[in-house]
Amino acid sequence: MTAVDLLAGLVLEDERRWGEAAEPWQWDDARSILDPSGPRRHYLTRPRGASKTGDLGGVAIAVLLDQAPPTSRSYGFAADKDQGGCSSIRSPDSSVGLLKSAEL
């Protein structure tokens, strides 16, 4: 199972899976970000209401569970302080749960 498969299987608030609900352009963004042979930094521009927060939250979960080294720290940034500023989260290992290791 790949990070893209993990993302596609995440259940949304309306009980659909991300992979069922995602538009082709969302799939393109996700595949680009989750491609292990691609660049590690990405800059996405989307209009208001285009699922930036939800999609990137799902991508972050997929990265932490499939691609990030155990106990590594990952960062997320937002230009608008109301949308997050800077957040960090640590990847889980076998002795630490994902939720316990979060520092948001």
Class by helix and strand content?
alpha+beta
Number of domains: 2
List the quaternary state of the chains.
single chain
Query: How would you state the average pLDDT, rounded?
Result: 81
Alpha-carbon Rg, integer:
14 Å
* General shape: globular
Strand order of the largest sheet: 1-2-3
Distance between the termini: 27 Å
Helix content: 25-40%
Largest sheet: 3 strands, antiparallel
Order of helices and strands: HHHHEEHE
3D architecture notes:
With 104 residues, this protein is α+β, with helices and mostly antiparallel strands. It folds into two domains: 67 residues, no CATH class; 35 residues, no CATH class. Helix content is 39%, strand content 12%. It is built from five helices and three strands, in the order H-H-H-H-E-E-H-E. It has a three-stranded antiparallel sheet with strand order 1-2-3. The longest helix is centred in the middle third of the chain and has 15 residues. The N and C termini lie far apart (27 Å).
